[in-house]
Amino acid sequence: MVTGKPFLNAEQIQIRVRELASKISEEYQGKEILAVGILKGAFMFFSDIVRHIQAPMSIDFITASSYLKAQTSGEITIHCDIRADVEDKHVLLIEDIVDTGLTLQYIRNMLSAKKPASIKICAFLDKKARRRADIEIDYVGFEIPDKFVVGYGLDYDNKFRNLPYISIFKEST
Ligand code: 5GP
């Protein structure tokens, strides 16, 4: 079940998305971005943020998973790989949430091997307390405590992704 009032409401989210987009637009001046969304969780954040980034851009997606319901398996599976040519591109990885960091570390290493001009990471949420991988996040929407959250693209058992806000999730007993 989803508990109480939203942890982050739709308005707070949209304000922060625009702030991040404007920082990214400034820092990528004169460069073309290859924005890579990590599905499925990042679909809503991705579509919101790219429409506010003012820079030439192409887009692509990677579908990855590491969670089974509310538990990380620690094992990353890539279900659908990027199709774009990464060599010499300025890659901006767009992720819903960084927890252990293992997913992003895996994907960043995989893409680094393809010789991009640069790789940066933009994550909507950061659960720093649970980090296991040594990975730098360049743009963070919100730092959150160690709670399992749903909504705004994030799921429990593939549900709740359509909520326009973030809520804390509790399994009902
Ligand atoms: P990591 O590899 O950083 O441990 O996990 C990243 C992935 O785990 C995210 O892309 C997301 O799919 C899932 N994840 C981590 N924490 C949460 C959470 O609080 N809620 C939901 N719905 N998914 C999470």
Describe the structure.
There is one protein chain. Helix content is 21%, strand content 32%. A hairpin with a 2-residue loop joins β2 and β3. It is built from three helices and eight strands; from the N terminus they run αβαβββαββββ. The mean pLDDT is 92. α1 packs across α2 (43-50). It is α/β, with parallel strands linked by helices and 173 residues long. The radius of gyration is 15 Å and the shape is globular. It has helices spanning 10-27, 43-50, 102-112; strands spanning 33-39, 57-68, 71-80, 90-98, 118-126, 139-143, 149-150, 167-168. The strands form two sheets. A six-stranded mixed β-sheet has the order 3-2-1-4-5-6, sandwiched between helices. The chain has a two-stranded antiparallel sheet with strand order 7-8. The protein has a single domain, classed as 3-Layer(aba) Sandwich (Rossmann fold). The structure holds guanosine-5'-monophosphate (5GP). Guanosine-5'-monophosphate (5GP) binds at residues 41, 66-67, 72, 95-103, 127, 148-150, 154-156. The site of guanosine-5'-monophosphate has 20 residues, from β2, β4, α3 and β7.
